[in-house]
Amino acid sequence: MAAIYGLDIEDPRVGLDRTEFVHADTRHSLLTKLVRGLGVDTVVHCAVLTEGRASPRTVHETNVIGTMNLLAACSGADSPVRRVVVKSSVAVYGCEPYAPSYARESYAESASAREFLANDLREMEQLVSDFQVRSGSTAVTVLRLGHRLGFQYPTPLGEYFLLSRVPTFHGFDPRLQLLHDDDAVEALYYAAAADHGGVFNVAGDGVLLLSQAIRLAGRRQLPVLFPFWRGLARTGLRVTGYDMPASLADFLAYGCVVDIDALEREFGWRPPHTTRETLIQFLGRGEPEPQNVGPQEYELSQYLQRRRRLAAHR
Amino acid sequence: MSELTSSDDRLRHQLGLLYTDVNAELRRRGPNGHRNGHRPARVRVPAPVPDVIEKVKAELPVLALQAVGELSLRLRDLTGRDVIDLATMMAIVQFFSQQVELANRGEAVQVDDFGFDQEWTESLLPIFRWVYRNYWRVETTGLEHVPAEGRALLVSNHAGVLPWDGSMIKTALLEEHPHPRHARALIAQFFFGMPYLSWFLRRTGQTVGHPDDSVRLLERDQLVLVFPEGVKGTGKPWGERYRLRRFGRGGYVQVALQARAPIIPISVVGSEEIYPMIGDIGPIAKLIGFPYFPVTPLFPWLGLLGTLPLPSKWRIQFHPPIRTDLMDAEAADDQNLVMTVSDQVRDTIQQGLYENLRLRRSTWF
Question: Which of A229, A311, B132, B262 has a CA between 20 and 30 Å from the CA of residue B19?
Fold first, then answer.
C-alpha cells in the first residue's frame, strides 16, 4: 500500500497524519483524472448520506449522482481500480411494519418503502450492482451499516436518546438494533483490506425494545406522538427543538432489525459490540474530546492545500 | 498483500479518522444548520407525574380488594346469596395487582429477540382461561399429537374476522397440554401496521408471516402456528363457513421441509360463528387500509359493543402429525411434493371440520 488519499469538499476537521487530502467534490471529470493520475486501486466510498438531516434533494445529489460519477470514474478498461467498497445503510429496507423480524440482504428487493432515503439508497445500490456487472474483475462490497448513535457527533438517533423526556409513538414499541461506531469503521476496514464481494448487513447482535432502551438511558418515556401521518408529529417535535428526520420517524415507529449471518460467513467476523453495549457506552461516553488540530498545524495544512489547488489549476 | 498486513493498524486508524470526518461533515451540511455540531435538543414537557399518583398506584390492589369486597357484601344483602364468590374476587384482584407489578418491572423486562415477553403473556392467561372454559367452552382433542419438546408446525383453519382462533389454540396448549407450551403464531402482515395491536401481538410472541421468521423460530425448536388461508379465511362471508379457502401457495410446507419440522393439522370449529359476517363494505375497507370491513348483526351498529364475539360452542382437534421432518430437506424445491403435502393437510383439516361439526350438536350449546 503506497498511500491513502482522502477526498472531500471541505477540509478535514481531524489531523490525518498519513493521508493525503484532496479537496474535491464528486464531479466526474475530476474523479477520472484523480483515479488514473494517482493509480488508485481501492476506493472506499463513504460520501453517502444515511442518517443526517439533509434535504431530499441533497440526499439524491450526494447518494445517487455522486455515486454514479464515482463509479463512472472507476470503470473503463484503463481503470486501475480493483476494489470498491460502498457504504450504504439498513435504511434501504425502509422500516416497514411487516418486514421479517430479521431482514436478510435479499429483502431489499421486495421492500416497498416510499420514503426518499430508502428509494435513493436502493437506486444507488442498483448503480453499484450495474457497475459490478460491467467490470467483473473488480471486487465490489456494499456494507449496509446499521443505525449508529454517533459517539463523537451524535446522529439524530443519538440526540434522541439524550433528550430529557423521550417522546415515542403511541401504541408502538419497536425492536431496535444499533451499530457501534468502532464496528462500522472495522467493517469498512475489513472490506477495504481484502476482497469480499457482495452486499452485507452490518449491525450489532441482539435487540432492545424502544421502551427498554429509554429505560436503560434513564430517561422518561412520553408516548405522545400520534402514530399516523408522522409528518405531523415531526412538525410538533420541531417546535420543541428536536428535528426528527422522516426515516428516523419510521424507525421509531416500526424498528428495523437485520440478519448479519452473511457478514459472518464472508468476513469471519461479527460486530463485537451488542446493541445493549453500544447504547450503554454511548450514554456513558462523556463529552467528546476536542480534536487535536493545533492552529499552526491547521494553517499549514490550509497552505499546503491552497498550493495543491493552484498546482491542479495549472 | 504482505505490505497490507504490516500496516493493518495504520490503515484502520486512517479509515477511522476519515469515516468520522465524513460523517461530521455530512451532518453539518444538513439544512437545519446545527452547524456547530453537538447541541442536544430538549423537549419541554409538563412536570413529572406527582407522587400522589404513584402512591395511589401502589395502594391500588388493596383499594380494589376493599371495593370488590364492599360490592359483594352489598349484593348479598340485596339478593340474599353470594353473587361474587371469594375465589373469583381474589383472582380478579390478584390479576390486577400482578399487572401493576409487571408494569413496574423497569429494566428487568425480559423479552426475546422477537419481542416476546413470556412473563407478561402468562399473566394474561386467567382472562383467556375464562374465555376458553366459560365463554366458548372449548373442547380440545388430540393434544397428545403435539410433542412435549422440539419443533413442530401447527397448521389451522382460520375464521372469524379477528384472530381469536389463534388465541384459543395457544390457550389450549398452555392449559391442557401435559407440558404447557407457547405456540408462536404467524400473523397477517397488515396487523403489524396497527398501533396497540401490533404491540400486543409482538409482546405475546406472535411475529410476521414471513418464511424467514418461521424457519428461524422452528430452528429454535419452537411451536409455530400458521393459518395458510390468511385474511381470505377470516374475511369469509357467513354462507361459506367451514369451507376452507386456498392454502396460500404451499409456502408453509416448504418452511416445514426446510426446518425439518412435522406438520400438525388443526381443525377449529366455532370460530366461524363469533362474528357472523353478513356483508363486507369494500370502499370503507379500502379507505382505512383493511382487507375487509365486516358487517355482522352487531357491527358496526352497536359500535365497540359490536366487536364482542358471540358465545358459540367451540371444538379444537389436533390431528396426527404429517412427518415432513422425515423427508429430505431438498424436497422443499419439489413443487409437486409441496402441493401434494399441502393438499393432504388441507383435506385432513376439512375432514376434521365436518367431523367436529357433527360432534357439536348445536352451534351455541
Answer: A311
